[in-house]
Write a structure and sequence with these properties.
The chain has one domain: 3-Layer(aba) Sandwich (Rossmann fold). With 414 residues, it is of the alpha/beta class. It contains 16 helices and eleven strands. The protein binds 2-acetamido-2-deoxy-beta-D-glucopyranose (2 copies).
Length: 414
């Protein structure tokens, strides 16, 4: 009898221990996740930024700023030591569309923010307006139409000035900050550096663009077929009172993508959006879909599609009949990147379907700043990075960080 009871509890404890497993090394293992030895528990999945950072032995400060137009944003700053030593060189990281600052910390020891903190940089991470950690406004309600009336233009013109001013104030590194953007984070930086040029020149020392997007003329992805219909869809959604594609916390959205069999299909979509990749492992897939997508406004999507439909003209938002009232011209003005005088260094990948190499080259050719460069990553071109590999690649420490560090130092030494 005792033996039976003992055996029962033994088996029960095994099963119980496995109930928490949430990642596996292969697709098929997910089918049997509860009893599979190739699966384990990753405590960072669905964890708060606070606990992810603590799980890996780093320290977090949260800084709150209010933009000129009333959006209340939280920035994260991490450190290897409990004290946040001033006078270190500051890197300011800005995430892409549908993402937030979690992208820089959620890949365990190989997360970019941790690797940069290990190199002794003072690491700051922005959370754009509307994301889970920056979802307040001084008087607009989160659910309201007014709240979601923004795109990446407003991030460049309002979020970045307020955020960078605060970083400069706290760190004493005015004019010494290195801006590192990924995807939409790069678009926002070009808008900041052209529309708020004096502010940018005063506050940051240079721009590093990872998978840069400005002169968006093509998508090497089947999504390209959707572009012509985004504008009518946007108009339609606005008519029925929808201004944001998804305003839930990421954790609520893609839960089915975390388990078999949908996990395989969801990864297929992921490749469809950002490009096929050989750099990703199945154990990371639940990480993507537990953190994505952050809210995406219809205005931001429509703005990118307008640029695409104009053959890559890097122009302001097209308000149609209201253009004349807003801009004094019938055609939206361009963001004049020829006026950027800060150093700009760009990294791009050969399997990237969004930041396509020809568009990166167009941006490079349009820049007139004296210090500029573009570099394919990885330097071993038999491996090709997708749009997301710059964040998610399992070889980030080898293929990307050393080159990133060289460019950070190059900017700091100019
Ligand atoms: C930064 O400091 C200046 C001067 O003390 C102050 O006017 C400004 O409001 C501060 N900005 C932020 C965002 O803290
Ligand atoms: C480049 O990558 C390929 C594919 O992983 C590998 O076989 C090759 O050895 C690498 N070349 C160098 C010079 O590292």
């Amino acid at each position: 009898m005792l033996l039976v009871l003992g055996a029962f509890f033994y088996v029960f404890s095994l099963v119980d221990g496995r109930l928490g497993d949430n990642v596996c090394s292969n697709l098929l293992d997910y089918a049997t996740i509860l009893v599979n030895n190739n699966c384990w528990y990753n405590p960072d999945i669905y964890a708060s930024p606070e606990s992810i950072i603590a799980n890996h032995g780093y320290y977090l400060q949260t800084h709150t700023v209010t933009t000129e137009d009333g959006y209340i944003l939280n920035m994260f700053r991490i450190s290897k030591k409990p004290t946040f030593v001033a006078h270190r060189k500051v890197v300011f990281l800005h995430h892409g569309m549908a993402a937030d600052s979690v992208q820089w910390i959620t890949f365990g020891r190989r997360s970019i923010a941790f690797l940069l903190a290990d190199l002794d940089y003072d690491v700051w991470m922005a959370n754009a307006r509307g994301t889970a950690n920056s979802d307040r406004h001084v008087n607009k309600k989160l659910g309201s139409k007014n709240y979601w009336n923004f795109g990446f233009h407003e991030m460049g013109v309002y979020d970045l000035p307020a955020s960078l001013e605060h970083v400069a104030n706290i760190t004493g590194q005015l004019g010494e900050i290195v801006y590192i953007g990924h995807s939409m984070g790069t678009t926002a930086s070009y808008i900041y550096a052209t529309e708020k040029a004096a502010h940018a020149n005063k506050h940051i020392k240079g721009i590093i663009s990872v998978a840069p997007i400005a002169f968006l003329s093509e998508l090497k992805s089947p999504l390209f077929l959707m572009v012509p219909i985004i504008k009518p869809i946007n108009t339609f959604l606005n008519t029925i009172g929808i201004y944001v594609v998804n305003n839930q916390k990421p954790a609520e959205n893609l839960k089915p993508c975390l388990s078999f069999p949908l996990i395989g299909i969801c990864l297929g979509f992921w490749y469809l959006i950002g490009g096929q990749s050989t750099e990703q492992s199945y154990e990371d897939v639940p990480i993507y879909f537990s953190n994505l997508p952050a809210p995406v406004t219809t205005k931001g999507l429509a703005h990118y599609s307008q640029i695409l439909l104009k053959g890559g003209r890097f122009q302001k938002y097209d308000y149609g009949l209201d253009n004349f009232r807003i801009y004094g011209s019938f055609i939206p003005p361009v963001y004049d990147v020829t006026k950027i005088t800060l150093p700009v260094h760009m990294f791009y990948g050969l399997a990237d379907t969004l930041a396509v190499d020809t568009d990166v080259l167009t941006l490079f050719n349009n820049l007139r700043t004296r210090k500029k460069s573009m570099q394919v990553i990885p330097t071993n071109t038999s491996i090709k990075f997708s749009h997301f590999d710059f964040i998610t690649s399992k070889h980030i420490a080898k293929h990307f960080i050393p080159y990133l560090q060289i460019k950070i130092q190059e900017i700091l030494n100019t």
